[in-house]
Amino acid sequence: MVGRCWQIAMMAVSLAAALGIRPAGAASADLFVFTTPATQGATTSGGLIADGSGNLYGTTVAGGAAGDGTVYELSPPPGGSGPWIETVLYSFAGGTDGSEPQAGVVLDGHGNLYGTTYTGGFTPPGQSLACGTVFELSPPAAAGGAWSETVLHRFNCTGNGALPSSGVVFDGQGNLYGTLNLGLNDYFKPTACGGVFELSPPKQARGAWTETLLHSFTGGACQSGGGGTDGESPTGGVVVDAGGNLFGTTLSGGMFGSGAVFELSPPAAGGSAWTEAVIYSFAGATGTNPFAGVVLDGQSNIYGTTLEGGAYGDGTAFMLSPPAADGGDWTETILYQFSPATDGSALYGLTPDAAGNLYGTTVLSSGVSVTGGTVFRLSPPAQPGRLWIKSTFAGGGRYQQAPTSGLLLFGGVGIGTSTSVASQNRDAVYAISPAP
After folding, report:
1. How many domains does the chain have?
2. With a threshold of 0.85, does the pTM exceed it?
């Protein structure tokens, strides 16, 4: 499913032409501006995906009929110009159906959408905060009908974790994987460091999905009396490689307490337990606190970003190369050191294109302005061993002031979500066409 989503995102469609964006230079446009929270949703988050017809899908954390968030679809405007058309596919009611979808959604081969809600679902007795859900949205049987929501799983805050902090990804067998803000232990106690879960589809029609907590992190300050070094707080999601291994990041923990990249490997033949290994622990000079997840290339290299650390203290873009032999160490290469004076900071992660470039966004613009944010591209250097070449593209839309997600690459443009922090105070979906 990961590969399929990648292919969809890179489909060659004439989106740039439809937006009136000239390919010779950087330009941008607001595709849609959220102006009415009660009907359109509010507080964009988690990024976007596209289907084969060029429709976009995303989530809002708040807004909608009950104020508990939405899943929405944006369709291209008739005739190729003007604002895109939003359809709210589902408004969360804040009860057992879920609340606050903080991450984006994924598509399966039948047009169904899958995602998580950070809260809602099951509420433990005597408590006010529910534990979160994994949901499926199915398209209507006839045009114009309503999408239907099915809650695939409700977390219980104890034995199977709580508060899914990322979206989900598929493997080749139809299993779903994601991360939890709190792991095995009761989240009302300061002993839960987050976890990684698997949801397996039912073996027969109308059966229940089965959740397995693959790993509960123990490293960091979340463990009273001190914990291990396996990581803490996996705020990004995971990716799946061809062998079924999962890779992700933890915001803190690891050998030096500044975050880690981990690998979860499926059980060996006859076994039942997944194996977790920290393949890299961050220290100050190599970046600290990786907030977003990672991406893989065809050679099993891992790419990602850190929020802080590096030469200037404002984050890095990095690559991890696999060991040459089993049991060896992964090697980190710093691709770029972000400086608040020239580059912006607070990174959302990276998206690769077919030519090997990496695209991303920063929440803060150069000069540490909270009214800005940037879209950037990192290109491989002409001489190996040097820092990658960074290009920054200024947004021109009225509401493009603080990105709230990474980029979807689609039809030659980058599409993301943003919020304005000036007087407009509105969220938007924007498209930007970087100069070649």
Report:
1. 3
2. yes
Q: In whole angstroms, how far apart are CA 68 and each of 39, 101, 386?
A: 12, 8, 47
Residue 369: strand, helix, or coil:
strand
For residue 157, count other CB atoms closer than 10 A to its CB. Answer: 24
DSSP string for residues in 53-70: TS-EEEEEEEBSTTSB-E
Q: Tokens 């040459």: give the residue.
A: 324
Provide the pLDDT for residue 190: 45
Smallest Cα–Cα separation from 416: which of 358, 338, 351, 366? 351
Do the domain assignments include residue 296? no
What SS3 state is found at 303?
A: strand
- How far is Cα 41 from Cα 92, in angstroms, rounded to an integer? 10
CA distances from 270 to 31, 53, 119, 274 (A): 51, 43, 36, 12
Encoding tokens for residue 312? 């200037």
Query: Is 272 within the bounds of a domain?
Result: yes
Q: Which residues are CB-neighbours of 269 under 8 A, at least 6 positions away?
A: none
On whether both 2 and 134 belong to a single domain, the answer is yes
pLDDT digits (tens, 9 = 90+) for 215-269: 988 876 666 555 678 888 898 999 999 999 999 999 998 999 899 999 999 998 8
Q: End-to-end alpha-carbon separation of the chain, Å? A: 29
- Judge whether 4 lies within some domain: yes
What one-character DSSP code corresponds to residue 9?
Answer: H
Tens of pLDDT along 106-119?
Answer: 999 999 999 999 99
Biggest CA–CA distance in the chain, Å, is 63
C-alpha pair distances (Å), 162 with each of 182, 188, 196, 290: 5, 11, 11, 21
Q: Let me know whether 137 and 60 are in one domain.
A: yes
Task: State the Cα–Cα distance between residues 59 and 237, nearest whole angstrom.
Answer: 16
